[in-house]
Amino acid sequence: MIEKNFKNLEEQIQIFLHKGMIINDQKYAEKVLLRENYFFINGYRHLFLKSHDDRSFKDGTTFEEMYSLFLFDRSFRNIIFKYLLVIENNLKSITSYQLSKKYGYREKDYLKEKNFTRAPEKQAQLNDLLRKMKRQIRVNGSQHSATLHYVSNYGYIPLWILVKVLSFGIVSEMFSILKPEDQKDIAEIYDIDPEIFIVYLPILANYRNLCAHEDILYENRTQKAIEDTVFHQLLKIEKKDDEYVYGKNDLFALIIIMKQMLLADDFKNMTHELDNVIETLNYNLHTITINKVLDRMGFPSNWQDLAKMERSKDFEK
Fold first, then answer.
1. Quick one: which H or E segment has residue 243?
2. Tens digit of pLDDT for each residue in 140-169?
3. Which ranges of 19-62 would DSSP assign to H, the alpha helix?
4. Closest Cα partner for 217 from 287, 293, 151, 164?
5. 68-81 pLDDT per residue, tens
């Protein structure tokens, strides 16, 4: 096995220079590499390489240009993260309200097995999830201020408080094991089919974790593609082999999901913020075009039109 030896800042610069990158200010580049990490910045090199076989940089590629893509992804990721947290909070509020109204507000009531699906293939998942939720009650009962307040004053933790300490992943998984009628009651608030909702939630949870850990966002691909939506059709997204080329398992697929999950004004605000950071990147690019970046993200050229499109049902009214 080949070992990766430590490289000091000057040696890291030399690697870039050897591959044809232009370093206009070495001291600046070293400061950036010290703060941001060579490995993370180098992860944004792919669009600037000459080809899959020729791993040297395109003529004229500068350190500042590649760093601008790194900063763009950070800004884009922060915006997406902010609105994913809105979706997470909304989902937790809606779910806890619907279930508490039907099954009660004490954990001994709402965590009964009979409140969930009885499908045989889901029983192992159900038992595991109930253990996770009960563990969160034990762990956070005396550590989180909200849960501590309820335990100390009332002797129980209502679901609308418990969801504050449950991860998006657990809430997503909980939806998948609800009774069909409960899934329907929650999903129809968003005007989304429950089966499609089941696909959307883990995608949202995975992106939420990706953003929280500052992984590369712009070229991320999901394992599972989303179903075709009316938005694919309205945007007139190109098809290849009868499949849409954008908005299926790329970052734009996430944007389409968020379109259906956010209130209209929130989505418009998000689109405006995203457009601003795209324009900033466009100003800083010279070796590659912004269209090359958007293509990598799965964004059609008319992606902003998504904010103007109406949904079949306005759940905020």
1. strand 243-244
2. 766 777 777 887 888 888 999 889 889 999
3. 26-36, 38-42
4. 293
5. 999 999 999 999 99
Q: How far apart are CA 23 and CA 123, in angstroms?
A: 58
pLDDT at 312 over 70: no
Identity of the residue numbered 256 = I
Q: Which of 217, 287, 288 is nearest to 72 (CA)?
A: 217
> In the predicted model, is pLDDT for residue 290 greater than 90?
yes
Which candidate, 98, 208, 96, places its Cα nearest to that of 162? 96
- Taking a C-beta distance cutoff of 8 angstroms, is the pair 24, 62 a contact? yes
Label residues 154-181 b or e (16+ Cβ within 10 Å = b).
eebbbbbbbbbbbebbebbbbbbbbeee
pLDDT at 139: 77
Whether 177 and 129 have beta carbons less than 8 Å apart is answered as yes
The DSSP bridge partners found for residue 239 are 244
| Amino acid residing at 267 | F
Pairing status of strand 243-244 against strand 239-240: antiparallel
Tell me what the pLDDT averaged over the chain comes to: 93
Q: Looking at the whole model, is its pTM more than 0.70? A: yes
Q: What SS3 state is found at 83?
A: helix
Nearest Cα residue to 164 out of 181, 148, 182, 185: 148
User: Which helix (H) or strand (E) element contains residue 244?
Assistant: strand 243-244
